[in-house]
Amino acid sequence: MPMSLTADYDADIPVIEAIQQGDRDAFADFVRAHDRWVRGMVLGVLGDRDAVDDVAQQVWAAVWMRIGELRDTRRWRPWLYRLAHNAAIDAHRARVRRRWAVGQAPIAVRSEGAAPTPPQELSEAERRRAVTEAIQALPALYREPFVLRHLLDWSYREIAAAMDMPVDTVETRLVRARRMLRETLDGKV
Amino acid sequence: MASHDERIESLMNRSLDRDLGEAEQLELDRTLIRSPEIRRAYEQMRRIDSLAAEALRAMVPEDHVTPVPNPEAGARRSQGGARKLWWLLPAAAAGLAVLLAMQLRGRVDRPGQEMAGTNDNAAPIHRLVEDPNRPLQPVRPGYRPHLTDRSLDHNWTGVEGNDGRIYWIETRRVRTLERPGDAGAVKLVSDDL
Q1: Do A69 and B14 touch (CB under 8 A)?
Q2: How many angstroms separate the Cα of B175 from the Cα of each of B134, B149, B155, B171, B186?
């Protein structure tokens, strides 16, 4: 469900204030209402779904513990976004460190330099897998707004508000994400 | 897509994102009609968009919601301000005790400087008798003390944490007074530890 930056945006402020007062029911409702986009943005940073559940759990635990630090409740969404973003970045770094420690290749290395696969007819499942891998191979910088746009159907303005960046930057990143996907998937879809 | 200029690419992207005005949409439609190459590229972008949305929905299913964390099981909420300091009390008490133990051990190891409270067989310490005729005065740099007096106070203070438990803080107060050999004045060298 796309968020609105006007009426719906402010409608959550009393909920935030209730959570700050320790209202657990309000917190449970809040988690249910916003879990999907939090999971989506975690996926946008991590690139694959393996750790999404764990990181989302950490994010909500952190929200409960740290919501008292949110002074301007009108800015709860960028605050939550940053919290989730940082948790995802930390999880990504931890995974990269673990992989290096056991001698595996780092995660999410772009397939830019890989030899191009010859064009061929792919089955639907293969096509979907190719798209998934291409999304995972995008740099997080471009993958994040791409996931928010395509998973959650957010507008440029909504993405810009959540990521705390200009609308033009969002558009530029989406253009580049699509361009990279086209190059990677050329002849496969 | 070397043949596409940035303007057309931007229009195609914004069209897919339903962010185009009427005039811009018209401009794009005309371009698509005129150029089969641009039309093919646009169709490819739409296909990729559709497959991407499908793949992402499979990765983050709508019906899956993260279980609400149990606040009782997690760490306590931060409420800012002085309450944060309560969590430091046990660590501070332990740190204080360790520091004190290190300091006391160092002094006991030095012959002739035993302190009361660290060794039952230690010699009694000197206790300076306050003398109103010999007030505390600054001591010039590089002086050698003639006599050192040390005393040790040992206290336990109970404080109630916001979890309802009582935490005990051990404080030891080491007071050292040095009397210069020439002037008869004393200088307070160190106080609370």
Answers
A1: no
A2: 18, 8, 14, 13, 12
What's the pLDDT at B90?
A: 73
Q: Assess B34–A contact: CB distance below 8 Å, yes or no.
A: no
Average pLDDT estimate for A49-54: 86
Write out residues 12-71 of A within 8 Å (CB-CB) of B.
Answer: 22, 24, 27-28, 31-32, 35-36, 38-40, 43, 48-49, 52-53, 56-57, 60-61, 64-69
Say yes or no for a CB contact (<8 Å) between B48 and A131: yes
- Token pair, residue A53, equals 């559940």
Q: How far is A99 from chain B (nearest CA, A)?
A: 22
- Express each pLDDT in B113-122 by its tens digit: 333 334 334 3
Q: Pick the residue with more confidence: A44 or A4? A: A44
- For residue B178, give the H/E element and its range: strand B166-180
Determine the topology of domain A7-185 in CATH: Rna Polymerase Sigma Factor; Chain: A (1.10.1740)
pTM for the whole thing? Answer: 0.59
For residue A30, give the DSSP letter.
Answer: H
